[in-house]
Structures are given as structure tokens and as C-alpha cells.
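WARN retry 2 of 3 for item q-0093 after timeout on previous attempt; input resubmitted unchanged.
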Amino acid sequence: MRGSAVPVGGRTAVTLVLTSVVGLLAFTWPLLVDAGAVLSDATAAPLVLGVVLAGVLAVVLVGLSDGGLDVKAIAVLGLLSALGAVLRPLAAGTAGVETVFFLLILGGRVFGPGFGFVLGSTTLFASALLTGGVGPWLPFQMLGASWIGLGAGLLPRRPRGGAELALLAAYAVVAALLFGLVMNLSFWPFQLGLGTGLSFVAGGALGENLGRFLTYSVATSLGWDVGRAVTTAAGVLMLGRPVLATLRRASARARFGEPEALFEAVPRTVGKPLA
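OK item q-0093 returned
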């Protein structure tokens, strides 16, 4: 993608696809185990963290080796990650209000899917370090946030103005609801234990377990997920226009992937007599 802060060539695209497929398996593997298998959230979390970190590092290294990822892109990534890390604690955990996802969506929209994928992980990781929120849930949150930034970068590029804001707001609602579902899936098999009507049944039919999972999600977290969806969409609609304009100006000035013009500030004196 030309002009992207992290250009998505063939190798980067393969890296993103492989990381996402392995990450999806990390969320859904309890649904595939046989009856009697031992399930452990503490075992799964380090594996997911390894997948996320490997994917992020692979995207960055491929971008560096291809010559598309430069110091300007890294600087923008660091700035937006730090801003997101500061924004997230302002309301995270309060009635489902989420104050950082709109930034991931707008950043992915302007700087491309590769940048959005890396931004999601770095932002959630920095936020966890800032607030002491490091735990088994963090790798899953990082991967979910990376998918949000990645998806925003893959949206159709043509819409602008009000149509673009409507597209991003609709995407924000869908992404926020799906984030809640995958986060529930990451801990639901381990949380309730056995013997309840909503418990995970190891080795049970896929349709049965999905039905139990959806019932669990509606009963326990739908209100929070809707709150996240509404606040994220509202953030996009209220702040989207000025933030998009600011990010696009920064992208235009940075000219990602292009070498700096070392002498563009030097006045032209060739052919003129010296005073």
C-alpha cells in the first residue's frame, strides 16, 4: 500500500495472515479439544503472548528489510502508542466505556493495516505497563486490538467526509462488539468450572458449546460491549474529522518510505554572482 507507514508487500501480508490465523486458533482451541483434556488459562496466555510478539516483530523486521519502515514511522508509532496508553486509563472498565479504540481505528485508517496491527499491540502493552494491568488477559487484548487496527486499515479507501465518518463509526460498533466476544472466549472455558448451564463442555459438540458461549456473553457482558461500541463510535463521530486531518497532514509531511530531501532548505545560488 503506497504511502502506508508500514507498507504491506507480499511478505508482510503473509506475516499478518499467519499471525492472525495462529491467533484465532489461540482463542478457539478449547472448542477443539477432546473430552477429558486439561484446560489451563495460565498455559494458553504465554503462548498467545509469544504469537503476538512474534507477529509484531515480524511485521516490523519485514518492513525494515523492505526499506519501507523508517525512523519517521517508528516515531509516529511511538507517539500514538504513548497517547493511547495515556487515554485508556481515563475510562477503561467504567460501564464499558473505552477511550482508546477510536485512536486505533483512525490510526489504522490513515497509516495502513500494517501500522494499525502494530499500533494495537504496542498501545495495549504500554497501557498495561502504565496501569499495572499485566496479566493472562493482556496477550489476548493485544491481539484483539491489533485486529481492530488492521481491519481499519483494510476498509475501502475511497469514502471521504461524512461518508467516511459513517463508515468508520459503523466499523467501530462491529469491532467493539467482536472484541468483547473474543475476549470472553479467551477466559470463558476456564471461568465457570463444570456443572452449570453456561459452562464449557470439553469434547462437546461445537454447536452446543457455541450456544452456551453466546448465552454466557449475553448474560454477563453484552451491556459492557454495547457501551464500548457506543463510546467508540461516538469518539469517531465527534473527533474523527480533526484527528483524521491531523494524522493525514503528518503522513503527508513524513512521506513514508521516501528519502529526506537533504538540501531542500538550501537557497538556490547556482548561476548567481556572489555578493
